[in-house]
Amino acid sequence: MKQTMETDILILGAGIGGYQTFRVLEKYLKKERLHRKITIVDRNNYFTFVPMLHEAATGSIEPTHCAIPLRALVAGTPHTFCKASVEYIDPKKKIVKTSVGSMSYQYCVIALGSVTNYFKTPGAKEHSQHVRTLDGAMRLKHEFIHTLETCGDEPVTLNIVGGGYTGVEVAGQYADLAKKDLKQLYPNTSIGIRVIQAGDGILPHMSVAIQQKVEKRLVRQGVIIQKNAKVTHVSKGSIEINDHDNIKSDITIWTAGFETLGATYMKTGVNDRGRIDVTGELHMEEFPDTYALGDIANIQDPTTHISYPQLAEAAYHEGTYVAKHLVRTLKHKKTTPFRFHSKGQLMPIGDWYGVAQIGPFVLFGKFAWWIRRTVYLLFMPGFLRKLRIVFDWTLHSFGVRDVISVDTANVEEHTQ
Ligand SMILES: Cc1cc2nc3c(=O)[nH]c(=O)nc-3n(C[C@H](O)[C@H](O)[C@H](O)COP(=O)(O)OP(=O)(O)OC[C@H]3O[C@@H](n4cnc5c(N)ncnc54)[C@H](O)[C@@H]3O)c2cc1C
C-alpha cells in the first residue's frame, strides 16, 4: 500500500474490545442501512481470547481454539480486515501510520490493549515466558514439554513471577497438571512450582479472606508461595531474588504486570501511565471522532473518578457501547455516557476449584469453577469455537492433557 488508504471507520486492534466493537457495529450499520465501511486492523490475522491462554499453555485447550481468524469475521460483509502493525496515530489529521502504509479515517476506535511490563528487570524479557499472547502461550507449552522430555530424572523448577490473578491461575493449572497428568506421563519427574510475589500477599486486590483461602488451596496443591520477594535478575536457568538469592529456574513465567503504550502511538491526550484519556462517551476530548477503549483507554467512573479496571469484561462492554454510540452519532441522535458495573470476579485455581465474587457473595469450590467456565465460554465469540472448547474440556476431564509440542524453530535443522 503506497498512497494513503481512505477508510470510513477504522478499528485498531481486534482483541476483546475491538472485536466486540466490530461485531455490534456491523450488525447495527446493516440494520440502520448506513452504508459505512469498517476496516479492522491487527498485527495478527486472528482474534485472541486472552483469559483462556493459561489453559492453552497447560494443554487443557488446543491453543488455536482460543483464537478466531479475522478473515472469517469479515467474510460475507462489505468490511475489510488489514493485517498490519499500528505505528503512529494522529487524531488531529485523522491519519494512522501502519507497517503497510498510512490510513486516513472518518472515525477511529483505538483498542490496542496492553503489553507485559518487565519493570526493566535485566534478562526478564529475554529469559522468561508469558501467557499474554497466543504465540507466548504456545512457546511456554513447548518449553515446558521440552524441559520435561530432556531433564532426565532431575526435578523441574517452575517459577511464576507475580501473585496477581494471572500468576494464581497459572500456578493452579500447573499444580493440577503436576499432580495428575504428569504423574502418569512422566512418572520419574518431580515438579517444583513457586509463586514469587513482591508484596506481602497474593491477590492484593481481593479481600483478605479470599487471599488466605486461595493461598491455602495452592499450598495444599504443593505450590510454594514466596512473599516480599522481588525478582531482580532473570537468566537462562536461574533467577535472582531481592538482589542476592539465586535459585534454579528451568521455566520462569512472568505475570507480574502489564503496561499500556498510548504514548508510543500518539503525542497528546495520553496520561502518565500510557493510557489514552477519553470522555464519558469514550472519545478523546479534543477529537470526538477518535474513540479509545479497553486496556489502552483511561475511562473514569463519573461519580468516583476512579478509572475502570483493565479487564476483559470492561473492554467487552466498552466495545458494545462505542459501536452503538457511533451509530447514533451517524444518525444525529442523542447519546448518553458510558457506565460500567462489574458483574463480579471469577477465577479458576486449577481443575474443579474456583473463586467467584459476585456482589457481596463469595463462592469457593466446584460451583464457582463451573460458573467461571460457563461465563467465559459465553464471552468467547463464535458458536463453533465454543463447541471446540467444550469438546477440549470434556476430553481433558476424561483423559490426560495434550503434551504434544511441535518445535517449528527447528524445521530447517530437521530437513538438512
Ligand atoms: C493472562 C491474562 C489473563 C487474563 N484473565 C482475565 C480474566 O480472567 N478476566 C478478565 O476480565 N480479564 C482478564 N485479563 C485482562 C483482559 O485480557 C484484558 O483486559 C482485555 O484483553 C483487554 O481488551 P483489549 O481489547 O483492550 O485488548 P486485547 O484483548 O489485548 O487486544 C488488543 C489487540 O490489539 C492488537 N495489537 C496490539 N498492538 C498492536 C499494534 N501495534 N498494531 C496492530 N495490532 C496491535 C493485538 O494483537 C490484540 O489483538 C487477562 C489478561 C491476561 C494477560
Notable characteristics:
13 helices, alpha/beta, 4-stranded mixed sheet, 33% helix, FAD/NAD(P)-binding domain, 416 residues, binds flavin-adenine dinucleotide, 5-stranded parallel sheet, 2 domains, globular
Question: Could you give a short description of this structure?
Answer:
This protein has helices at residues 16-31, 53-57, 70-74, 124-127, 134-150, 165-179, 181-185, 208-220, 262-265, 312-330, 366-379, 383-398, 411-415; strands at residues 5-6, 9-12, 38-42, 46-48, 67-69, 80-83, 86-90, 95-98, 101-104, 107-110, 115-116, 156-161, 191-196, 223-226, 231-235, 238-241, 245-248, 251-254, 258-259, 276-277, 290-292, 297-298, 345-348, 354-358, 361-365. With 416 residues, it is α/β, with parallel strands linked by helices.
What do these coordinates show?
With 416 residues, the chain is α/β, with parallel strands linked by helices. The protein folds into two domains: 141 residues, FAD/NAD(P)-binding domain (3-Layer(bba) Sandwich); 190 residues, 3-Layer(bba) Sandwich (FAD/NAD(P)-binding domain), CATH 3.50.50.100. 33% of the residues lie in helices and 23% in strands. It contains 13 helices and 25 strands. Strand 8 and strand 9 form a beta hairpin. Helix 1 runs parallel beside helix 10. The two termini are 37 Å apart. The relative contact order is 0.15. Bound molecules: flavin-adenine dinucleotide. Flavin-adenine dinucleotide binds next to helix 1, strand 3, helix 2, helix 6 and helix 10.
